[in-house]
Amino acid sequence: MSTIPDDLSYTKEHEWVAGLEDGLTVTVGITAYAAEQLGDVVYVEVHPEVGSTVAAGDAVGEVESTKSVSDIFAPVGGEIVEINAAVVDNPSLVSSDPYGEGWLFRVRVEEEPEDLLSAAEYTALTSGES
Amino acid sequence: MSRSTPLRGVHESLGATLTDFAGWQMPLRYGSESAEHNAVRTAAGLFDLSHMGEIFVVGAQAGEALDRALVGHLSVLAPGRARYTMIVNETGGILDDLIVYRLDEDQYMVVANASNYALVARELADRVRGYDARVTDRSDEYALVAVQGPRSAEILAALTDADLDDLKYYAIVPGVVAGTPALIARTGYTGEDGFELFVLNEHAVPLWNALAEAGRDAGLVPAGLSARDTLRLEAGMPLYGNELSAAITPFDAGLGRVVRFDKPGDFVGKAALERAAENGTRRRLVGLVARGRRVPRHGYSVTREGAVVGEVTSGAPSQSLGRPIAMAYVDEGALEKGGLAVDIRGSQEPVDVVDLPFYRRSK
């Protein structure tokens, strides 16, 4: 069973959002549950350049595994301020450390996020799926 | 309703991710599919293939009946040997690709894909009418466990008194493995040396456990369908439903060598296949290696200067090449000109055409 840290927010698309309480810049990644479903991740791309602005719900990238490819969505609107170059170089970090070194990008929040889930709500969502 | 093999409980206790494949709950992977793939290339992997079909054709004219029913020349196959062949319809379209084992003078075993074996059994029963041959679909009675990889012979040798040194590639012998009666075949779908063990359902779990135990020190690991798919793709082996279908003839697939026009008598599809051989093909099955890191996948278009010139049938990241690979049907004209790409979700990613297979084991 995958871990679901208490101190993060989540989306229905199996992403996590960290740092929301500070209200400035958040870090985004995919959950351990999603990483397990994907299998070995072989390719990660975040499409927008650093400095560009995205809206919540925009498809901003893709995570590719041996068997499938999945879109990455922006869970919040704002400016992309950093993309994790380490995970682009070494996509397996998504599988080995999804909540740590496997983070994907950082956004300076300009648009209040909607519909984010608490850890308890996300746990309920994934236990329903598995 | 999904079906389960006798080994489902074993897969669950190993923590496998299960997936539906042709109506069967099968292990997709147990842990990392890349690690499973690499284990088969360097040591050995253990596979549950019990979803495959085993159809027995028995009788004094079983060989002649199969000559009529299939594209190959099975009556001249020596007892104890196997052949890769196909069953086609009247228009030459492939209904399934098969391995046929001649177990005895008057006994053959036809191994068909999970998605097709019910159809194959019906077609065979229909086509052998008038011959002294009886078709029995025994798929529900048989489990199939495969050990594949360079160390598979030493692992299996420790559990059987069958002489594996004498068992050539594409040969089969009855024997006892870990106390279990088995048909031991030196065949596989990975591009490595390896064995496929046909046993009655009730023997599948003890056989699996004995092999897992015997192979542990040699690096044997359980391997799922995900690794099986990347292994066969690297080995350039077609998969029914991807490279092969009823809309494709063996010649389209570059497998015209399996069609034996030189055998005596007529066979189902012969006239259509003679025309196909005569006319040649507009598209050809080729190997593609991507220059970038994005993966061409089943159904993606092959393009040249923006125009669609083909279609990807299978694609995956290749552990052995370190790049994404694919098989695709591509127009002959475009192949001559070169400069091909694959449309990966709207972006034209350059690919190089290579000879199949992508990977060949060192002897």
UniProtKB/TrEMBL annotation, chain A:
Pfam families in the record: GCV_H
Residues with N6-lipoyllysine modification: K67
Cofactor-binding details, from the entry: Binds 1 lipoyl cofactor covalently.
Keywords, alphabetical: Lipoyl
Domain annotation Lipoyl-binding: ranges: 25-108
Gene3D superfamilies: 2.40.50.100
InterPro entries: 2-oxoA_DH_lipoyl-BS (IPR003016), Biotin_lipoyl (IPR000089), GCV_H (IPR002930), GCV_H/Fam206 (IPR033753), GCV_H_sub (IPR017453), Single_hybrid_motif (IPR011053)
Cofactor: (R)-lipoate
Quaternary structure note: The glycine cleavage system is composed of four proteins: P, T, L and H.
Sequence similarity: Belongs to the GcvH family.
Protein task: The glycine cleavage system catalyzes the degradation of glycine. The H protein shuttles the methylamine group of glycine from the P protein to the T protein.
Name the record gives this protein: Glycine cleavage system H protein
Source organism (scientific name): Microbispora siamensis
Upper classification of the organism: Bacteria, Bacillati, Actinomycetota, Actinomycetes, Streptosporangiales
Gene that specifies this protein: gcvH
Automatic annotation (TrEMBL), chain B:
EC number: 2.1.2.10
InterPro entries xrefs: GcvT, GcvT/YgfZ/DmdA, GcvT/YgfZ_C, GcvT_bac, GcvT_C, GCVT_N, TrmE/GcvT-like
Pfam families reported in the protein's UniProt record: GCV_T, GCV_T_C
Reaction(s) the record says it catalyses: N(6)-[(R)-S(8)-aminomethyldihydrolipoyl]-L-lysyl-[protein] + (6S)-5,6,7,8-tetrahydrofolate = N(6)-[(R)-dihydrolipoyl]-L-lysyl-[protein] + (6R)-5,10-methylene-5,6,7,8-tetrahydrofolate + NH4(+)
Domain GCVT N-terminal: 9-263
Domain Aminomethyltransferase C-terminal per the UniProt entry, residue ranges: 283-359
UniProt keyword terms in alphabetical order: Aminotransferase, Transferase
Top EC category: transferase
Keyword Transferase on entry: yes
Oligomeric form and interacting partners: The glycine cleavage system is composed of four proteins: P, T, L and H.
Family designation: Belongs to the GcvT family.
NCBIfam families: gcvT, PRK00389.1
PANTHER family on file: AMINOMETHYLTRANSFERASE (PTHR43757), AMINOMETHYLTRANSFERASE, MITOCHONDRIAL (PTHR43757:SF2)
HAMAP family linked to this entry: GcvT
Function: The glycine cleavage system catalyzes the degradation of glycine.
Protein name listed in UniProt: Aminomethyltransferase
